[in-house]
Amino acid sequence: VIDPFVVNGDPSAYAEAVNTACAQDFAIVGSLSTGDGSLGDLIDCAIPNLPARALSSANRSAPNTFAVVPTSATQQQAGGFRWLADSQPDCCKQYVIWSTNAGLANVTKESAQAAVDSAGFTSAGGTALADNADQAAYAPSVDEMKTDGATFGRSDLPYASTISFRKQAEAEQLDDVTWFCLPQCYQPGFLVQ
């Protein structure tokens, strides 16, 4: 029996899913979540955690985590960001949307910021928005991107945020920007947009 859990990058939902798995399952297999920094009872229950990738240093350093694509707890996967910096003209002065949910914001900032720093990205600012912000809430961010010359846009929120962010940028004719979506976009709902 497989118990699927959809957590949409929310650390509290991830911790709840881990706690449920600890109570009823023999292992956690194939997970990938930007909210994986909230481990719940993972270490205490000691079931094997076999994620596709462990994104947070807390998850990577748990003694019972064995990622399919392993990384060190002190290293970040920067290959995608380095490829963008090398292959996209005038990339990458980034603007980032992060969550008003402090737990989610801290986890994604930790995992992504070290990677973009190592790739040589610079900052064009950023702001915090609610995970369910509507498209109009992105207008001030798009304006700031224009003013500060952003060439790279990223949202660390659930995938609906990336869709709203890009639609608002298109509505305001913000062109010549490279867009990036973290692992929360690796799901069918994003692709149909």
Write the layout of secondary structure elements.
Layout (H helix, E strand, L loop, with lengths): L10 H14 L3 E2 L12 H4 L3 E2 L6 H4 L18 H9 L5 E7 L2 H17 L3 E8 L9 H10 L3 E4 L3 H13 L6 E4 L6 H4 L2
Parallel strand pairs: 1-2, 3-4, 3-5, 5-6
Please characterize this protein's 3D structure.
- The chain has helices at about 10-25, 40-45, 55-60, 80-85, 100-120, 140-150, 160-170, 190, and strands spanning about 30, 50, 95-100, 120-130, 150-155, 180.
- By secondary structure, it is an alpha/beta fold.
- The strands form two sheets. It has a four-stranded parallel β-sheet with strand order 4-3-5-6. Strands 1-2 form a two-stranded parallel sheet.
- Strand 3, helix 5 and strand 4 form a beta-alpha-beta unit.
- The mean pLDDT is about 85.
Total strands: the figure is 6
Largest sheet: 4 strands, parallel
Strand order in the sheet with the most strands: 4-3-5-6
| Residue fraction in strands | 5-15%
Mean pLDDT: 85
Termini Cα gap: 31 Å
Strand-and-helix sequence, N→C? HEHEHHEHEHEHEH
Tally of DSSP helical segments = 8
Q: How helix-rich are the residues, as a percent range?
A: 25-40%
Global Rg: 17 Å
List unreliable stretches of 5+ residues: none
| Outline | globular
Structural class: alpha/beta
Give a quick set of tags describing it.
8 helices; 14% strand; globular; 193 residues; two-stranded parallel ribbon; alpha/beta; 4-stranded parallel β-sheet; 6 strands; 39% helix
Task: State the gist of this model.
The chain is of the alpha/beta class and 193 residues long. The chain contains eight helices and six strands, in the order H-E-H-E-H-H-E-H-E-H-E-H-E-H.
